[in-house]
Amino acid sequence: MNLQAIHNIALIKKSNLDPNQYTISLLKEAFRSGLLDKNKIDNIQMQIVLILKDLILRYTKGESTSVTTETAEKLLNSIYYSIDACLSTLENPEESIVLLKTKKIKEIYEEGIKIVKACTAEAKILYDEINACKLDVPLEAYNATLEAIPDFFSNYCVMFFAHDTMADIDYPLLFDNTSIRGIFYIKQYLEKLKIETEFCKLFNDIDIRKILKNYGRICSIDYEKALINIFELLVINSIFSILSGNNGNRLAISNFQYEYLKNMLIGLNTSGIDSLVSQAVNRMINDLGICNPKLINYVEKYKPTFVTRLINALENNSLPNLVITDNEDTLQNNTITFEEGDRMDDDSFRFIVHRLNQCKNTEEKLKLISSSIYSLQDFIDILKSDCLFGEEFVAVFSTLSDMELSVLGKTVFWEELRDNPLNLSSININKKEETAEPDWHLQYIKFIKGLSTDRLKSIISIINAIQ
Amino acid sequence: MNLPVILNSIDNVLKEIQINEILNINKESQKYGLYLNTAEVEEIIETRNHVLPSYGRVELDMGVISKLIKSLCNSPYISQEDYVSTLNDLQEMFYYLKNETEDKIGDDELIDILMDLFNNSCRGAMELLQGIIEKYGADIRYKNYINDYLLKGEEY
Fold it and tell me: A50 CA to chain B: closest CA distance, Å?
């Protein structure tokens, strides 16, 4: 290779190459850099015109030598699509130019058709795999897209319209590349849908449907008709679930956990949030047992987007729109019935108490409590178990919603509530403070004394409503 | 992907091939006393190159004009005098009909229809043929309109 050739190679600017019109842009670039002269380019185009001539005859089944300009241009697009398919498989543009110089265009075109046909076969297999384990969700876009793809395969014509992407694909992916066309677009869509489906299948359909329903409630939309990406919803809630002390396979986030989450995130700077999210993502991958490197990369690719969304939500006070909480404990008809969850067995409880006493700081204790304690009685037992001290009670009570504080209040003020509903004037909090036992009652009273009058009134009204 | 641009860039190369292709037909047409010289062939190709885009069509070989020449040269109503002008008019009528029939009739059949009208109904009178072709095109358009209307009615 001489110096001129080496110099010419350096002149090919990849930024000038259009992946959707690869051959044409390559010819232009090659001409510009002097790698191909006009005679050669004319010769290449002549060969392509001869291919088009044959294709017109095939298209009209030998009945006609002319077609409308629109049809001819579509056929030409199809020819270039197949030539692009062949040239794009080469390592670099320089190799493509060598091939254009040394091989007949018809051979390159026929090689390209084989590649397009192979891609079609691979895409069909991908579709069958996805369809075999599709999610059972009432999302119109998701189901309609899966129903439409077989029609695409039935109608797709490699010979005449290889570049066409005539398919009703409405379901939005997280990272869809809509700049490409034809079967290559369909294949990349299915590859990514497969990755997303693999992740979504790590959760059960009931939990997914619940998340969708709650999402619709939060955003006030008909979720069945909305263009929602299920993968994104599940990743977000899984990460938040971990941050609020759960395992990654739990999607449900209670109001209690939301408050804890909010308090943890507010005040963190960008790098703090980034670090927290990175740890949560690693934990999620671990908890869910994700081993597929493609899925891991996919999740990692989403991480920066998620961090940005989280930071924006915190800045704009719209975190409730990002965290999909379970809506199980709302006031209805002015009466509430609190359902106690299953209590822990004694050994498990003792283990939690032991772990709490090993915790280095309040934050660790909070995380442990929120991830391990689910029933009211277990929670009260923890409050009684001498593993929380002083300000730690404040920290725990601060994470509770009005509802949870009211439930505890029902226990603290049971004597006052025996005969009459509670009200601000009937509670002599100072007198109660003097006689409160056990210690957590005293801590509770001290805590609610510090609340605003409005909030205290709200808690009292809930206490009175609980049965 | 501009087809006219691509065709323009290789126009000179194509033209030479096209001229030779038509000149070769002289071997057959000469038996009927009909002959095209190079200038006349160039004129016919020029007409074709003008007519095709005006009817929004693309043709990459000389198939139609070749068939027209071969069909016309044994007509009792053609002479050397009006050979070129008749061929030019027939080209235009052919591509007009191709559009009006929405490509549903093949080249050979359409040329047969044209020559049948030229020889039998019009006896070589081009103006008469022009009128019949336009009426024929309108009839086909009307029939297609009715068929489309009925088809849509069935869909509903």
Answer: 8
